[in-house]
Amino acid sequence: MLALRLYFFACLTLTPPEPPMTLPPLSPYTQAFDLTNQSWSDNESRLMQQVTPERGLFWIHIPPKGIVVPRKYRSRPLFRQASETLAAEGMPVHLRLSGGGVVPQSPHTVNLNLAYSVATDNPFPTAEAHYLALCRLLQTLFNRFGIATDTQTVTGSFCDGRFNLAANGRKIAGTAQFWQRDKTRPGRYTILSHAVIIAAQAEELTRQANRFEQALGSGVRYLPERTVSVEALSGAGSEIVADELNTLLIQTMPV
Fold first, then answer.
1. Is 26-252 a domain of CATH 3.30.930.10?
2. pLDDT tens-digit profile of 102-111?
3. Core-most of 124, 146, 191, 221, by most CB within 10 Å?
4. Signal sequence span per UniProt (predicted)?
5. Strand pairing category for 170-181 and 66-70
6. Where are the domains of the chain?
7. If DSSP states are collapsed to H, E and C, what string results for the chain?
């Protein structure tokens, strides 16, 4: 019996792990991210509506200055007042589809949206694999700028989460997801997998996030030393980062 148990354990330990999930082929989405005529979440919904089981999309955009938060923030007592205050200061507040926390935006951030169809009856067991696939893509991007990164939480950074990308313990990108059931195709979901890359001015972005928390009457404050930018580590600003990201996606995800 002992030998049998040892043999069974050996079989378990020698079973090779499943290979990491790879992202499906994605085409560039060429429409402008339009905040003049549409809300932030409407832009995201517009992207997801173009997805089919055979066709996924990627969308890279550099936004104007502002704050983006999940829709749950609407229930905060001072949300409307805070939004009006920040809009008057040149920082409009937008609502997004995914969860998480406060994300400052500016011409020094690069946003990446991946939208594609997934065959599953339950997204929860597979969500982590999709996060990690996005993180591997971002790590490849940062490697092109000579920046080594790890996937980890970064306590004290804005919108902290398990699937941050960090360089020497400082957040350089954050990720989020939104899953929507495909009502026309049973057993399928459309996923919006999103990343915000801190291309430059990390301290100013943290200041923006803290200004919003202050206007909300929140005691939460983020620490500027917990984030870092691509520009600070490599000299490359947002336009260069966006161009390199576009090149990487076209090279690794041919249509």
1. yes
2. 999 999 999 9
3. 191
4. none
5. unpaired
6. 26-252
7. CHHHHHHHHHHHHHCCCCCCCCCCCEEECCCCCCCCCCCHHHHHHHHHHCCECCEEEEEEECCCCEEEEEHHHHHCCCHHHHHHHHHHCCCCEEEECCCCCCEEECCCEEEEEEEEEEECCCCHHHHHHHHHHHHHHHHHHHHHCCCCCEEECCCCCCCCCCCEEEECCEEEEEEEEEEEECCCCCCEEEEEEEEEEECCCHHHHHHHHHHHHHHCCCCCCCCHHHECCHHHHHCCCHHHHHHHHHHHHHHHCCC
Region 36-50 average pLDDT: 97
**178 Cβ contact partners less than 8 Å away, ≥ 6 residues apart:** 44, 97, 98, 99, 191, 192, 194
Contacts of 70 (CB under 8 A, 6+ apart): 95, 96, 98, 99, 100, 101
**Residues 37, 40, 43, 49: is their CA dihedral positive or negative?**
negative
Alpha-carbon gap, residue 203 to 152, rounded angstroms: 20
* This prediction's pTM: 0.91
60-96: per-residue pLDDT in tens?
999 999 999 999 999 999 999 999 999 999 999 999 9
